[in-house]
Amino acid sequence: MTTLRAGLLERFVFLASVVILAALSQGAAAQEVHEFHGNSRRDGVYVVPNLTVERARHLRVMSNFDGHVQGSVYAQLLSFRSSKTNQPLLLVATEENVVYALDAESGHVVWMRSVGEPVYRSSLPCGNIDPVGITGTPAIDERRRSVYFDAMVGSGKDSTPQHLIFGLSLEDGAVLPGFPIDVASALRDLGIAFQPRFQNQRGALAIVGDTLFVPYGGNYGDCGPYHGVVVGVKLDGSRQISAWTTRGEGGGIWAPGGVASDGRSVFVVTGNTKLTMRWVDGEAVVRLPLGSQGKIASLDYFAPSNWKWLDLLDLDLGGTNPVLFDLQSGNEKVELVMALGKDGKAYLLSRERLGGIGGALLVTKIADSSIRTAPAVYAGTSQALVLFQAGRIRCSQKTSVSGLGALRVKASPSLELAMAWCAPLRGEGSPIVTTTDGHSEAIAWVVGAEGDNCLHGFLVETGEPVRGCAGEQSAMHDLRHFASVTPAFGRLYVAGDNRVYAFEPR
Question: What does the pLDDT read at residue 452?
Fold first, then answer.
């Protein structure tokens, strides 16, 4: 009997150790952020074991954190550990075409790499970024210990710009063999016209399997003959290029979250097309099979039935990236994609059959203003909360708020969309969610970019404020619209012009 009890105790201790190690492993893995919003689904949910609600209330900026970089930062910060020293590092990409690896503890520069002169606004027909360098969030390939991004490169104020795709080593920033790739030249070989001065690269990159996906749109102002383009680059050594482009002029893929994927397909959302009487891939959620190129097949897209009207009013469906999530309805798994438009509507779609023209599962008006920042999705078993920033959010039939909203998606007993809560906020940041274990103590974080420039926290389930603008020292400076918080190594990081800020729970 004693032997039996000892054996059971040993098994219990072993299993408990496995559970603890798995939990610690999950938390440790979550400290590294390799893509926009943490993963290719773009849900923006992170595990930060030490960031409880109570500790979040006392979050403070680290005054001794250096964090100085050169240039404006539109891309989300990424994070990784050095494979040689295990040193925690932040990856920062700027509009000056400089990539930095910063020590996540001190903010000091570990390595930096300039990839060429940025392109000045005077060299472009339109736009609102000056200069333009690296805008879209890069993607880290952990297996190859490398990072990939697009840079707009010139050689002077009156030079002809180029879009170049770079691959750098994570260890020292060295340019990888076979890079950079000249996008215009590579697409020309595929018979696709690509004029770099009219194209911009604002959406986040994604790595799915062995393929890097890079989305392109136009410059602010919609000038020139640009197209929505997705470029695929094989990372297996062949550097094989594939591409998909909108048939019509326009239809840019410019949302901050860029490309999303569930591992089987990639999803993008396009903006307005120009001067067309027939649908030519604009105002649409588009599903592309991995490695695909050419035309999209039937049921591989969704566009609102009033897409012509959206074109005319510049109310892009592509103001936000698609977010992917799964819910349970009875014994059935429901695979969903959510798109939020500049028309203030939420479009809920089936990932298996996007629905073609007008074929959404559900559509509801949630704001009387444009929705343009990247959303986050906190999903449970049968329901999820989609967090988004907008002006004049329809909190109820009688009230509206400019700030952060939470849209509840229910799958059981039937699909349903309804506003859960709203919270006032001055600024245009992209929300994310932190939890201590994947579901507990969930906090929504968002910055008041180009507004109050503060870091705000709210309880995900209720919208109750956890942290706001608490004194002058909590304000940051020159945060760019669409900015997103990056949780890494037990802290929260935010990038502004020429500076990275670190916040530490106490």
Answer: 94
Closest CA to 207 of 265, 262, 141, 287: 141
Q: Which of 100-114, 185-199, 279-293, 440-454 has the lowest mean pLDDT?
A: 279-293
- DSSP secondary structure string for all residues of 376-399: EEEE-SSEEEEEEEEEEEE-SSS-
Mean pLDDT within 477-488: 95
Rounded CA-CA distance 82/114 in Å is 20
Bridge partners, residue 2, by sequence: none
Q: Which two tokens stand for residue 203?
A: 């959406």
User: How far is residue 58's CA from residue 462's CA, in Å, rounded to a whole number?
Assistant: 20
Q: How does DSSP assign 320-332, residue by residue?
A: S--EEEEEEETTE
381 and 328 in contact (C-beta within 8 Å)?
yes
pLDDT (0 to 100) of residue 469: 84
Contact 492, 61 (CB under 8 A): no
- Looking at the DSSP bridge assignments, the partners of residue 435 are 47
Q: CB atoms < 10 A from the CB of 256, how many?
A: 27
Q: In the block, which residue shows the tokens 């201590």?
A: 436
- pLDDT over threshold 70, residue 16: no
- pTM (two decimals): 0.92
Tell me how far the alpha carbon of residue 139 is from its chain's centroid.
Answer: 10
Angstrom distance (rounded) from CA 89 to CA 485? 16
pLDDT for 8: 38
Residue 119 confidence (pLDDT):
96
Query: CB neighbours (10 Å) of residue 227?
Result: 28
Judged against a pLDDT cut of 50, whether residue 395 lies above it is answered with yes
Give the pLDDT of residue 285: 97
**Average pLDDT score over the chain:** 91
SS3 427: coil
C-alpha span between 393 and 410 (Å, rounded): 20
Is the peptide bond prior to 413 cis by the omega test (within 30 degrees of 0)?
yes
> What residues have CB less than 8 Å from 39, skipping those under 6 apart?
none
Beta bridge partners of 154: 117
Q: Which two tokens stand for residue 144?
A: 């190859």
- Could you give the CA distance from residue 229 to residue 232 in angstroms, rounded to a whole number? 10
What is the per-residue pLDDT for 473? Answer: 54
Kindly report the length of the chain.
506
Give 170's contacts (C-beta < 8 A, 6+ positions apart): 80, 82, 83, 91, 101, 140, 145, 146, 147
Rounded CA-CA distance 244/240 in Å is 14
